[in-house]
Design goal:
mainly alpha, two-stranded antiparallel ribbon, 9 helices, globular
Length: 229
């Protein structure tokens, strides 16, 4: 849970840097989707990790524990934003020459803050809910299906909500640009999480063997099944 909240907090800071990847060879035109390199932000490698951690918490500890983690993360992100705003508003010392730089990195843009918090809550809740409901049907089998299914739903919800709220602040004014921004962001985040799925498997397996509450839950489920004729 600490790692989950920490990743979300770090992502909010590193995400303020715009990044252009693969611009020397990635050029694609498919209707409204125009790619000339992959435009993303400095948190592109961190944000999928938050969903991986969310998958692990949901798989091992359940939806209730994940709900607490989401609410804790929301509270910390909101607190961090308030602290950044207060620090920026404090009068700078005469010798401090980095006020503008600090404001550019840590400054709170209300529209971005709302978009980030709303996307985070919607995406993580959907991600956890889908994974837990799929597990109720399949049990311990087909973890890969739960991870992919929850990722697709969660990342889609997060991306659509964030982009819908933040688009105008980013200067996006046409449906073509909005679709490009949303679809590319969704596909990129989902692909990264699928690529690192083997790590999720390893972490889930390691925790399941060593977490007493999970072993107790398995034993209780086995006892209940044994009573069924």
């Amino acid at each position: 849970m600490a790692l989950f909240v920490g990743v979300m907090l770090i992502s909010n800071i590193t995400g303020t840097k715009g990044v252009l990847l693969f611009d020397d060879w990635l050029h694609l035109s498919l209707g409204p989707i125009q790619l000339n390199g992959l435009v993303t932000d400095g948190a592109f490698y961190l944000f999928p990790l938050a969903y991986v951690l969310g998958d692990v918490i949901s798989e091992v500890y359940g939806f209730r524990a994940m709900r607490r983690a989401i609410l804790a993360g929301f509270a910390i992100l909101l607190l961090a934003s308030i602290c950044f705003w207060l620090t920026i508003e404090l009068p700078a010392a005469p010798f401090y020459e980095n006020q503008d730089a600090f404001k550019a990195v840590a400054g709170v843009v209300p529209q971005f803050l709302l978009a980030g918090l709303a996307g985070y809550v919607v995406g993580e809740f959907l991600n956890s809910f889908v994974l837990v409901k799929m597990k109720e049907r399949a049990g311990e089998k087909r973890l890969w299906a739960r991870l992919i299914g929850s990722t697709v739903v969660g990342e889609f919800g997060d991306t659509v909500v964030f982009c819908a709220i933040a688009a105008s602040a980013l200067g996006i004014s046409t449906w073509g640009d909005f679709l490009n921004y949303t679809i590319v962001g969704f596909l990129w985040k989902t692909l990264v999480e699928i690529v690192i799925m083997p790590i999720t498997y390893v972490v889930c397996g390691w925790l399941k063997k060593r977490e007493p509450s999970y072993q107790e839950a398995l034993a209780a489920a086995g006892a209940d099944n044994a009573d069924v004729p």
